[in-house]
Design goal:
- The complex is a heterodimer of chains A (about 300) and B (about 230).
- With about 300 residues, chain A is of the alpha+beta class.
- Helices cover about 70% and strands about 10% of the residues of chain A.
- In chain A, helix 2 crosses helix 10.
- The relative contact order of chain B is 0.19.
- Chain B is globular, with a radius of gyration of 18 Å.
- Chain B has a 6-stranded mixed sheet with strand order 6-7-8-3-9-10, with helices on both faces. Chain B has a 4-stranded antiparallel sheet with strand order 2-1-4-5.
- Classes of the chains: A alpha+beta (about 300), B alpha/beta (about 230).
- Bound molecules: adenosine-5'-triphosphate and magnesium ion.
Amino acid sequence: MARWRYVFVEALAGLRRNLMMSLAVVLSVTVSLTLLGASLLLSEQVDLATDDWTGKVEVSIFLCDDRTCPAITTQQRQKLQEDLEAQPVVAEVFYESKREAYDRFTRLFADQPTLIEAIDVSTLPASFRVKLENPQLFGVIKDQFSAYPGVEEIVDQRDVLNQFLRFTTLVRNGALIIALIQLLAAGVLIANTIRVAAFARREQTAIMKLVGASNWYVRLPFVLEGVIAGALGAALSWGLLYFTVPRVTRDLAREVELLPFIGLDQVIAIAPIMAAAGIGIAAVSSILALRRFLQV
Amino acid sequence: MIRLHEVTKAFKRGRDGEVVALETVSLEIAKGEFVFVVGPSGSGKSTLMRLLTREQVADAGEVWVAGKNLKKLRSWKVPLLRREIGYVFQDFKLLPNKTVRENVAFALEVIGRGRRDIRDRVPEVLELVGLTDKAGALPHELSGGQQQRVSIARAFVNNPRLLLCDEPTGNLDPATSVGIMKLLDRINRTGTTVVMATHDQQIVDSMRRRVVELEDGRIVRDQVRGVYGYGA
Ligand SMILES: Nc1ncnc2c1ncn2[C@@H]1O[C@H](COP(=O)(O)OP(=O)(O)OP(=O)(O)O)[C@@H](O)[C@H]1O
Ligand SMILES: [Mg+2]
């Protein structure tokens, strides 16, 4: 017990002795992990947006329901389905009734009750959801079926989605690259700090080695010093995401309808990854920094 | 306790120069012995000591300490070897911000000894070195002789089988040195093997113990009840 206290006391004393340096380490870990966390969350967002519905459907043919045009008749619908199935560029056709559209919507936006309250079973139009042999051939479908009676609108889902995805992926990759560079810089900074700390305490360390303190025991205070700084940085950056991300996505969800957004759950889910990254980078760079310095 | 067989240790100097600090040195020291290692500056005394604690590794030959072949000793076992060896320096090497008691206790804390163990053992050793009343003092409040006593207390607190002293009286006046020698003698009488490197002719002559003399890294004399120089 006493020996563990020693390790902690030494590590904290080391952090305090070189407060400016410790602060720099914590901040640099914070910056890099915030970026890392942000890029992880963007990936989550992309996955969420490409979920079963948006991901599989390429073309939606919305059917009239008396709102903007006279409701489609059963005959018209059957004719439309037969012609769609006969069209060679079409790979698959599903019919989605108003009820099914409503169910899917409530499933997708389960965490946004205000959105669900705003609609009922009659609000969303029924549609044919069409998968194409070649997604580029959207024009063929549009030309052929736009004029069909009972067809309200034909929408290329990929178009909407692609724009969004391309942008998010770009931002995510950018954030990821900067995060990794920052993380590397944080690692170098940690290594340097630990080396300075070890140098400042070289006499004590020399005595410890001479009286037979085990190698890990000599090193542990220094490694812990780095790890505490790393963990602190991880906690700070996670806290930052915890308070900002749900706010931002809530605002976005208000602007961009019909697209699910990530929330607190996803931020909580990445906590272990961020902690592991912060502690891991700190531990690895501390150990590397000490490898030569504290050799027996 | 100690056995050196044709041990050679050289250091690089400059680009391709080399200094041979020890050359084919063979030496045996039995358990409980008191041995002086003498010789001019640069003759290899400290290097010999460092080989015994495995701070340095011999280039050739074998070094055995406390039944262990140091060349084959795994690096994680080195601390265990050092727990059987006490080490005293010329310049004391006390931690300046720790009291006498804390300096001594430190040697036990960092090898994981229990708190009760430490509480029992530290006063015992401080009494042995005659510093009971200075337990709460900081090193800079002590005389050189007193500081060296602390350093000996720290080296001895874990009951090592072997005590290595590298010029322990080098910074002390003759009268103080005599006190330190009495202390080392007392420790030796408890069964601890003592090896002491020194330049101090008076001490060696007065103690009449075994003397090993080094010159340019070779043993030139090994005398059972020796004196410092030849012919004295
Ligand atoms: N770490 C080292 N690197 C290079 N050369 C060294 C090293 N240690 C010792 N030497 C050299 O080895 C030789 C022996 O040194 P050592 O310190 O053993 O002598 P010594 O007998 O203890 O001398 P002194 O009485 O001055 O303490 C010297 O020439 C010294 O310069
Ligand atoms: Mg020397």
